[in-house]
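Let us practice reading a record.
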Amino acid sequence: MNFTLKQLRYVEAAGRLGSIAKAALEVSISQSSITAAIDALEASLDYALFVRTPAKGIHPTSAGREALQVIRNFLNQAQQFETELQSQGGDEAGLVRIACYATAAPAFLPPILKSITENFPGISIKLMEGDMISISDYLKNGEVDLVFTYDSYLPDTQSFEPLFAAPPYALVPISESNNAQNSTTLAALSSRPMIMLDLPYTRDYFLGLFKSRGLEPEVAHSTRSAEIAQALVEGKFGYTILNIRPKNYSVDNTRYKALPISDTSVVPTFGMATIRNVRQPKYVRSFIRGCIALRDAGAFDALTVHTNP
């Protein structure tokens, strides 16, 4: 077989985007070049990678879907090889591609980005975000080097480095709490209107907290945005349950209060997931070490809400 890295990148982009036109825009090349790359690879492999439907784009065949995964893995390894060569000689330089669980990103990422910028000026960062399923897929497909997520529901192909325990807490309107109240219970919350953060895995996790106590919450509103959930709490529409404090949270604010949930034993851990048994480029390993150093220095302690002993 005779094909180039560029041709493989063109084919991968077309398969990922489901469109020759969109792939051409992404890689800044003509549509005819994308088509030629697909044709050349199909001829070399002697089977079709895609079904092409006029006005509806392209769709991978069964064999094409497996081939695209192999291509993505190879391109990811090729990129690591290229950047590893570039970083030889002691320079910590390269592009680290990360994805973060969206509800955690606003509060969690700034100290990391600040530290990496100060300590590794040669490292640049490409950031993606999404729910727990989508960011896991980014990692599986080789679109990112690592993801920041919870330890629940991780596939066996991924390794996990813990950064901090993130127990669930209730964000309640300040008018529904008092200065002496330092915690709440699932039983107390179950009779009040709940604003559900309705994301894959997240909803099941929160419902499971109540189910483990033989309870069922009164879900009054649902949203896929932690920021909207917070706004609804501020508007006194109910409480919500989160694991990481809102960005710029202050204990003396006059709109809402974060209360630890004292009767839950299910405490997820937030951390970094990478593909198991894959040696990362030097600059990615430096990024990971930087995050671990922040953990050991207590940089993430203020992100969570714990019951006082």
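A brief commentary: The chain is about 40% helix and 20% strand.
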